[in-house]
Amino acid sequence: TKVSVVGAGSVGATLAYAALMRGAARTVALYDINATKVEAEVLDIGHGIQFMPMAEIIGSDDVAVCADSDVVVVTAGAKQHAGQSRLDLAEATVGLVKTIMPKLVEVAPNAVYLMVTNPVDVVTYAALKISGLPSGQVFGSGTVLDSSRLRYLLARHTGVAVQNIHAYIAGEHGDTEIPLWSSATIGSVPLTEWRGMTGPDGTVVGRLTEADRERIAHEVVTSAYKIIEGKGATNYAVGLAGSRIIEAVLGDEGRVLPVSSFLDGYLGIDDVCLSVPSIVGREGVRHRLEIRMSVEELTGLRRSADALRGVARSLGL
Amino acid sequence: TKVSVVGAGSVGATLAYAALMRGAARTVALYDINATKVEAEVLDIGHGIQFMPMAEIIGSDDVAVCADSDVVVVTAGAKQHAGQSRLDLAEATVGLVKTIMPKLVEVAPNAVYLMVTNPVDVVTYAALKISGLPSGQVFGSGTVLDSSRLRYLLARHTGVAVQNIHAYIAGEHGDTEIPLWSSATIGSVPLTEWRGMTGPDGTVVGRLTEADRERIAHEVVTSAYKIIEGKGATNYAVGLAGSRIIEAVLGDEGRVLPVSSFLDGYLGIDDVCLSVPSIVGREGVRHRLEIRMSVEELTGLRRSADALRGVARSLGL
Amino acid sequence: TKVSVVGAGSVGATLAYAALMRGAARTVALYDINATKVEAEVLDIGHGIQFMPMAEIIGSDDVAVCADSDVVVVTAGAKQHAGQSRLDLAEATVGLVKTIMPKLVEVAPNAVYLMVTNPVDVVTYAALKISGLPSGQVFGSGTVLDSSRLRYLLARHTGVAVQNIHAYIAGEHGDTEIPLWSSATIGSVPLTEWRGMTGPDGTVVGRLTEADRERIAHEVVTSAYKIIEGKGATNYAVGLAGSRIIEAVLGDEGRVLPVSSFLDGYLGIDDVCLSVPSIVGREGVRHRLEIRMSVEELTGLRRSADALRGVARSLGL
Amino acid sequence: TKVSVVGAGSVGATLAYAALMRGAARTVALYDINATKVEAEVLDIGHGIQFMPMAEIIGSDDVAVCADSDVVVVTAGAKQHAGQSRLDLAEATVGLVKTIMPKLVEVAPNAVYLMVTNPVDVVTYAALKISGLPSGQVFGSGTVLDSSRLRYLLARHTGVAVQNIHAYIAGEHGDTEIPLWSSATIGSVPLTEWRGMTGPDGTVVGRLTEADRERIAHEVVTSAYKIIEGKGATNYAVGLAGSRIIEAVLGDEGRVLPVSSFLDGYLGIDDVCLSVPSIVGREGVRHRLEIRMSVEELTGLRRSADALRGVARSLGL
Ligand SMILES: NC(=O)c1ccc[n+]([C@@H]2O[C@H](COP(=O)([O-])OP(=O)(O)OC[C@H]3O[C@@H](n4cnc5c(N)ncnc54)[C@H](O)[C@@H]3O)[C@@H](O)[C@H]2O)c1
Ligand SMILES: NC(=O)c1ccc[n+]([C@@H]2O[C@H](COP(=O)([O-])OP(=O)(O)OC[C@H]3O[C@@H](n4cnc5c(N)ncnc54)[C@H](O)[C@@H]3O)[C@@H](O)[C@H]2O)c1
Ligand SMILES: NC(=O)c1ccc[n+]([C@@H]2O[C@H](COP(=O)([O-])OP(=O)(O)OC[C@H]3O[C@@H](n4cnc5c(N)ncnc54)[C@H](O)[C@@H]3O)[C@@H](O)[C@H]2O)c1
Ligand SMILES: NC(=O)c1ccc[n+]([C@@H]2O[C@H](COP(=O)([O-])OP(=O)(O)OC[C@H]3O[C@@H](n4cnc5c(N)ncnc54)[C@H](O)[C@@H]3O)[C@@H](O)[C@H]2O)c1
Questions:
Q1: Is C124 annotated as a binding residue?
Q2: Which of A241, A271, D27, D277 is the most exposed place for a label (fewest CB within 10 A)?
């Protein structure tokens, strides 16, 4: 199995590192226009190969290094600067996608394409249109990372293991994203009915009020800004989220992941890429789950769709 | 961290093997009255240590080998014979528990006790009463295995990854167990509303009708009998389930697991050990989740409770 | 990736379990003439899939289940009985190999064949001749298990991590096997010069005298008998050793493993299968290392070769 | 188990990430004087917790966050700038060590201290003297990373799995370091006698001449400079190397690792910290292996020792 990562920046290099450490692929190829950078990252990661499952890392500033990949992850792009909204980055990045995608599809026509570059929903839409590949074969990391942030905060708040917090964020990877509270569960308890845990002395810990939920949802949206302010980029969690998605594809897992893909008649939403819980397997996005949503959630999702479609139109897509 | 496994039979040895392979504990101690058997198992597992995360296996027919364990797993007992119902084994096994528990508690007073020996709910109740330990510190593997069987069959039927099938079996580990369909979900879709996946050509696969659910529930109950008929014991899945529970304790995970523990006013059920989704952490069972159940499910659970209480009474517990 | 395991007995089923737990293959197929047994093992292992990396287990009494495997592991055979020497089993087992191999090669012509059934060296020789496949594509687990036993005992004796004990056993997997002491090292210290560790108080622990080495070598040879006496079969360590070999093949690792393969002019030894440290990769055995041996070691190896060649001849191979 | 990482820069944060992904510790605490930075790193890593083994990450600019650690890893310091020799950084860094160590020892008196900050050998010497802790409890990551670089290059050159390349670099982590060729092995073949692999067509690949060795040794020394030039820091491999050392301590592994520790009569070398293959366990460095060295190697090691001792003296240590 071969995974190529386009863009050897903070996100791309950490994603390669995480994927290798997790044994997600036998060969990881890094491609970047910056030859010195890509060589340095390949050396630094390669030196750690001894401590990983059997694997190989290669890299180049020649796109041929991506040839015959099973999965191509696109992280090339400009860093998001403190204060800059994700949608502001759109125009330049779409230009980049127009340059890169045809070259990639030429060397790796059968790969599944995972877009990570922001604004990821618009970038995914652009990549799909430009590549002409079947919808499903091109999708974005979407709100996998946001959902993982949500679950992390809920786990810390409730004291329940994060693996038992089943909650998704849908919509845009960005400011208009929507936590799907009404279908979320903790274990098999609806999240909105969670009453906390009663200790041996009768005290209750980890209750989750509506105010808590709102605060947590707000923290999810702001945390990316906070991280970028504090360290200039986000890379660790997105590296893991990306690796998880790669594993779902290469392992043909049929895994539910809130990735960003082309919607065509999903709860009345059309002609836009955004995230809804979807089944991911060897061919990419296999199916989108029709989630029962509250009126607010559905309204929010449609608003997110309209906003994203507007951006696409304004960029001539 | 030290885990002791009491009984080096099919279940005990495989559980030790699985726990070591998963890195669940630094030291695993096997204790069995059969000295030749325990020595053989320790040698056979020890010879594989090179291929595992750093660990150590020791064993003896002297209970002192369990001293100062963090977790003690009790698998000692008689094999379940083909045709024999789980409850038939009760009497002899409760006698065994009366002999072993005091000796174990003497050498490992602070351990969390995980009962696996069948009939596991009655054995757990007996172990709790005999040991005098706080409820929570003594619990049974319960329907963790049965739930894992259910999820496996649902995953195969629907084509969704088993990690996204959130369904629990509650009640007795045995013939009266109840699948909690009404609170089960696939991703965040209620299981009872699952409509299958629509492929690119419009065909739908993996629908799940009520008849499918009944057939699958039936298969879960009968599969243990089938395995015992075919190979004389069940050991592989229970080894993994046991290891998973150990990890929840040693990692203080706050993990939701349908283990068998003492109920005291749980949905009107008292003075019996049976399985409901519970939070497991370093101290053992921390909390039992109050699941919304359908009338049939609740009736079934109470019937299961009455049956188990009846057995306990008839054994003088 | 697909691995087939022929023979769902103690060794085959445990090997399948270990390989799945380690994520060594995406699909494991079990094939056994005993349909009830194979179905029971598949169910028992399948029920644990939830606790493993993404994988699938299938099984049948129809050899077609092995179709298009990447690796086929042959464990079919009779259990070794207490007291019975490994070579005694030869005749019946060679007959079995004659029946199975052509059918396997028909459905899985490109697979690498890993023989585990005992007497493994003779079985490997037979399988190679019968299949007509290139030498290298058919080899035996050989002394991988024995070397792992040796390292385990040396690690316990010296207090050094087993991963830093570099010692191989060569020759027959059986009574005439030879520990290659003269080339063994601990860290980068020749094993024969190991002086133990000096504690802070000046006391030395873990010295390794010639008498210690002899005792340990003897324990390795006798431990299989001891385990069979105590539990009727050996399965745990061999399951891990087999999984390790599979990983070396599927990961194209170039890993040094003392597997049993056809020697043709190796240190003057010809026309026999036995174990020497060899490089294993995607195509099977890629290269045999020319180890510097002491006179005793080389003499022992040749004696082992003569004994094995004799058995092969007496079986008409 | 608790591991604290002092300094949440490239190295510290990546090391925390790697340790969590590998399950090396239950709790990782990040401590940095830069509060915004440490908070951002903790958030970014925390958001990925869902994809890791059970673990927790905390962080603060208050040293109390390190309280009661089992291991403290010190990475605080200034980045090595392109062109700057490692020893040039010494003075400022020793000042930093003088400030930090007493505070750390106060809150975590029983921790094992792993120094990573460069110049690591001098920093280790300073930390040992300042802390007053027993030699063995304070040591440096030394040439673990350099040895891993060496093995990586040798593996690529020979085509043998890196796990079977047993070669250490000793001495200073820096320009005077010495590859211990004379005791290195590939599998059990002395590295200096490695003749490559013979393919089925008789061609030999992966020979290793003296010129190859020299070129590879040179590449190891220069690669750190190259990486820093290309990406401004090295973090991925050192994160894994650090995690490996932590695992050796927490797992009480008795693992051979070329860490930097205080030498007192080692092959005639005294009163200096530098790297030689050493046994690492729960208490830290347990024993230093007396390697058979060639005259050149021993001369080189002594020269390295003299250089390091000189630096220490010039810094008033
Ligand atoms: N979707 C998510 O969840 C998520 C999370 C974090 C970051 N991101 C996004 O990922 C992207 C990368 O972030 P980063 O921090 O790694 O940025 P970065 O600036 O560190 O790296 C970008 C890399 O892309 C390379 N590049 C630019 N043009 C290229 C081209 N034509 N071909 C190949 N490589 C090219 C650059 O040389 C650079 O190395 C950004 O768009 C960021 O917003 C997305
Ligand atoms: N709860 C579950 O999900 C589950 C699943 C499978 C099996 N089981 C149960 O696990 C138990 C063990 O099954 P098995 O197949 O391993 O049986 P087994 O007969 O192979 O092993 C039982 C072992 O217990 C030992 N033993 C007996 N008395 C002992 C004592 N006083 N002290 C120490 N050791 C003693 C025996 O020597 C034997 O080695 C059975 O009760 C079985 O029904 C439970
Ligand atoms: N090489 C080693 O290091 C090593 C170690 C342990 C065991 N072994 C050997 O492995 C073999 C298996 O041992 P076990 O304990 O699993 O024995 P077992 O008796 O438990 O299992 C053997 C299985 O092979 C099946 N079988 C028989 N004929 C078959 C055929 N024609 N096609 C398919 N399946 C067939 C049987 O039905 C049975 O299930 C033995 O030869 C044993 O000596 C080798
Ligand atoms: N030994 C090795 O193998 C190896 C390999 C790579 C890097 N390094 C060394 O590791 C060190 C760190 O490198 P980096 O790239 O992470 O640097 P960096 O500049 O990215 O990070 C250093 C961090 O230390 C913090 N810091 C400074 N003073 C502190 C104090 N008193 N208390 C707590 N935190 C403090 C800074 O705020 C900064 O976040 C350097 O000395 C580098 O040379 C060693």
A1: no
A2: A271
Is C174's C-beta closer than 6 angstroms to any atom of ligand 3? no
**Shortest CA distance to D285 belongs to which of D102, D142, D85?**
D142
Residues from chain D that touch B26, judged by Cβ atoms under 8 A, are 251-252
**pLDDT confidence band for D86 (50 / 70 / 90):** low
Average pLDDT of span A128-150:
97
In the chain, the amino acid numbered B237 is A
Mutate to test the interface with D, among C182, C188, C278 (most CBs of D within 10 A): C188
CB spacing of C54 vs A247 below 8 angstroms: yes
pLDDT digits (tens, 9 = 90+) for A276-308: 999 999 999 999 999 999 999 999 999 999 999
| DSSP letter string, C57-81 | EEEESSGGGGTT-SEEEE--SPPPP
Q: What DSSP string describes A93-161?
A: HHHHHHHHHHHHHHH-TTPEEEE-SSSHHHHHHHHHHHH-PPBTTEEE-TTHHHHHHHHHHHHHHH-S-
For residues A253-275, give the mean pLDDT: 97
Q: From the CB of B11, is ligand 2 less than 6 Å away?
A: yes
Placement of tokens 């092969």 in the chain: C312
Closest ligand 3 atom number to CA of residue C123: 41
Q: Does C237 touch chain B (CB under 8 A)?
A: yes
Closest residue of C to D157, CA-based?
C254
Best residue among B30, B61, B79, B101 to mutate for probing ligand 2, ranked by most atoms within 8 Å of CB: B79
**pTM for this structure?**
0.96
A258 CB within 8 Å of a chain D CB = no
With H, G, I as helix, E, B as strand and everything else as coil, classify residue A57.
Answer: strand
pLDDT: is D240 or A317 the higher one? D240
Q: CA D217, D125, D272, D85 torsion: positive or negative? A: positive
> Is it the case that residue D200 has pLDDT exceeding 90?
no
Please report, rounded to a whole number, the percentage of residues in chain D having pLDDT higher than 70.
98
CB crowding C295-313: b at 16 or more within 10 Å, else e:
eebbebbbebbebbbebbe
Q: Which residues of D touch A240 (CB under 8 A)?
A: 21, 48, 51-52
- Alpha helices by DSSP H, chain A: 10-21, 35-46, 90-107, 120-131, 144-158, 210-231, 236-250, 295-314
Q: Do B247 and D23 touch (CB under 8 A)?
A: no
Question: pLDDT tens digits for A44-90?
Answer: 999 999 999 989 999 999 999 999 999 999 999 976 667 766 667 78
Band (D60; pLDDT cuts 50, 70, 90): very high
* pLDDT mean over B122-126: 96
Count of beta carbons in the 10 Å neighbourhood of residue A192: 14
A15, A75, A117, A120, best to mutate for ligand 1 pocket (most atoms within 8 Å of CB) = A75
Contact D36 A230 (CB under 8 A): yes
CA-based max dimension of chain C: 66
Distance of CA D14 to the CA centre of its chain: 14
Between CA D17 and CA D46 the distance in angstroms is: 9
Residue B67 has pLDDT above 70, yes or no: yes
What stretch of H or E contains D203? none
Closest protein CA for atom 1 of ligand 3: C116
Ligand 3 atom having least distance to the Cα of C37? 39
When pLDDT is averaged across residues C288-302 and rounded to a whole number, the result is 96
Q: Which residues contact C15 (CB under 8 A, 6 or more apart)?
A: C5, C73, C75, C116, C235, C238, C239, C242, C243
C touches which chains (3+ CB pairs under 8 A)? A, B, D
Q: Distance from the CA of B232 to the center of ligand 2, in angstroms? A: 12
Using only C-alpha atoms, chain B has a radius of gyration, in whole angstroms, of 19
Distance CA C126, CA B114 (A): 48
Q: What is the pLDDT of residues B81-98, one digit of tens each?
A: 677 666 677 888 999 999
Instruction: Please say whether the beta carbons of C273 and C263 come within 8 A.
Output: yes
